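#struct-help
A.M.: can someone run this one for me? Single chain, 91 residues.
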Amino acid sequence: MRLGSRWPVGEPPHPSVPAALLPEIAAQEAAHPGARSWTLTWLEGRPHCALDDAVTVSLGPNGAATVSWRAGSDETFHPELPDDADDGWLG
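D.P.: on it. Structure tokens below:
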């Protein structure tokens, strides 16, 4: 079992995030300047990094980074999502 992690936008990603995801994480941060935090989870042994629960950068079976939007999303960023920065994980 691998534990997930969280980190604020603009900070270096968690050390367990594979290098293949780093360019896409940086691209998503640049595309969504109002974003607040990333959440890393491991599903079936592969990393999934969610940016404010709106967009997810993951490692596909072929080892390439993929980007997906939350179900029902119109592929636009929604900075009005609940602010979880006060939950003590990031401070």
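A.M.: thanks! The helical segments are 22-31.
D.P.: also worth noting: Residues 9 and 36 are 5 Å apart (CA to CA).
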